[in-house]
Amino acid sequence: MAGNGAGDTGGSATTAPVRRRRRDGELRREAILDAGLEVFSTLGLHGASIDQISERAGLSKTNLLYYFPSKEDLYVAVLRRVLDVWLDPLQTLSAGSEPADALRRYIRRKVTLSRDAPQASRLFCLEIVQGAPLLRAELAGPLRDRVEAKAAVLRGWIAAGRIGAHDPHQLIFAIWAITQHYADFAAQVEAITGRNLQDPAFFEATVEGTQKLILASVGLA
Amino acid sequence: MAGNGAGDTGGSATTAPVRRRRRDGELRREAILDAGLEVFSTLGLHGASIDQISERAGLSKTNLLYYFPSKEDLYVAVLRRVLDVWLDPLQTLSAGSEPADALRRYIRRKVTLSRDAPQASRLFCLEIVQGAPLLRAELAGPLRDRVEAKAAVLRGWIAAGRIGAHDPHQLIFAIWAITQHYADFAAQVEAITGRNLQDPAFFEATVEGTQKLILASVGLA
DNA sequence: GTCTATATCGGGATAGAC
DNA sequence: GTCTATCCCGATATAGAC
């Protein structure tokens, strides 16, 4: 983060460290994206200022604008990065697995994500709640396709009598809603219970409780 | 909305219509609060402008500021109004009821609210996700107390063996999360399923699916 | 209560030196 | 790539007439 080289005061530059410079630039971009996630996820696109983000990332406002031409550009870049993390865990629900195991693993994975990447979850939530102006395409395309694939897996399990009948979309939404609730509504959960997912016992209880709830709904517990 | 009286051009005013004027003022305030809910719930506090809100409410920017001294003041007023609607449905879970009936009614009520007052749900969501800076006190006080009361009801039912054992807080959070999901994440639900709660069949399927899921988790189905 | 200016300011974005 | 200085616009809020 800090401690960049003094920036060779000498003249005959462009010798060897060219390659390292490029990597520094990448790191800088990463730092900005990290800072953007933090600030955007608590203040929203309009509530956040470039100043805040640049300060947190350890550079100047103008310098940030060298890496990202506008605030909106940065915001979209942050969102895209979040979306990848977001779409990934669904893979856990694969047709080859034992239904109960697969569901249990998926739920644990989602709650773990709520614990370890709550800001990503919140930023995503903010965007969707506001109508997903910048994400509609991604939602209707890639996300929809992946969900349909997993819904098909669930339908297969139902048809084979391996789990009880339940609308696959509803089931997926329920898992999302419950697991993400502990990240997105953490302020409320904390106000009511006084605890959060950082507390290992609370984390484990949340995982197991959610697993039990979902499995029961498909007759596996 | 439109068509206010011409505004007595005469001089000897303040005769009879004084009382009606006060009621007009109240209506005006209501209209502003309504407009504020609409705009704030999609743009957020910082994304919304007084111009947009005043236009939607059918008056001028300056005029709006006559009724609410600042944007923040209006925002808080809107939020307070939402909170009341929000806290109300919990009453449905009363100790005297049959557990299955009470849970079913509560769930239907919540989904109905997601259908009829999605903007209120979204504004509340935005606020909580951002850490509830203006609501922390209300959450830790009134909301917490009401939730504790209802958690006690659930514990009573469990102790009496009328429903299966499940952490009361988890159960309440699950119901909130699932039912509000259809309002807060409507954009996502629509992108994936192509439907929303305005569709009567989808509404009914959502109510019944959620009832089934929750009841199953406490061994009542 | 409602309107027409207008003061004021934060903050996004650009120019250009280094 | 990074800095200083600056432009500029949108938006909140106020002043004061009607």
Q: Would you write up a description of this structure?
A:
- With 221 residues, chain A is mainly alpha-helical.
- Chain A has helices at 18-47, 50-57, 61-67, 71-87, 99-116, 118-129, 136-159, 168-184, 186-193, 200-217.
- Chain A has two domains: 2-69, Arc Repressor Mutant, subunit A (Orthogonal Bundle); 81-217, Tetracycline Repressor, domain 2 (Orthogonal Bundle), CATH 1.10.357.
- In chain A, helix 4 (71-87) packs across helix 6 (118-129).
- The interface between A and B is large, with 51 and 50 residues.
- Chain A binds a DNA duplex (18 and 18 nucleotides) through helix 1 and helix 3.
- Chains A, B: Residues 26-86 form the HTH tetR-type domain.
- Chains A, B: Keywords: DNA-binding.
- Chains A, B: InterPro entries: Homeodomain-like_sf, HTH-type_TetR-like_transc_reg, HTH_TetR, Tet_transcr_reg_TetR-rel_C_sf, Tscrpt_reg_YcdC_C.
- Chains A, B: Residues 1-24 are annotated as: Disordered.
Tag the structure with descriptive keywords.
disordered N terminus; Arc Repressor Mutant, subunit A; 221 residues; Tetracycline Repressor, domain 2; DNA-binding; mainly alpha; homodimer
Give a brief rundown of this model.
Chain A is mostly helical and 221 residues long. Helices cover 72% and strands 0% of the residues of chain A. The first copy, chain A, has 2 domains: 2-69, Arc Repressor Mutant, subunit A (Orthogonal Bundle); 81-217, Tetracycline Repressor, domain 2 (Orthogonal Bundle).
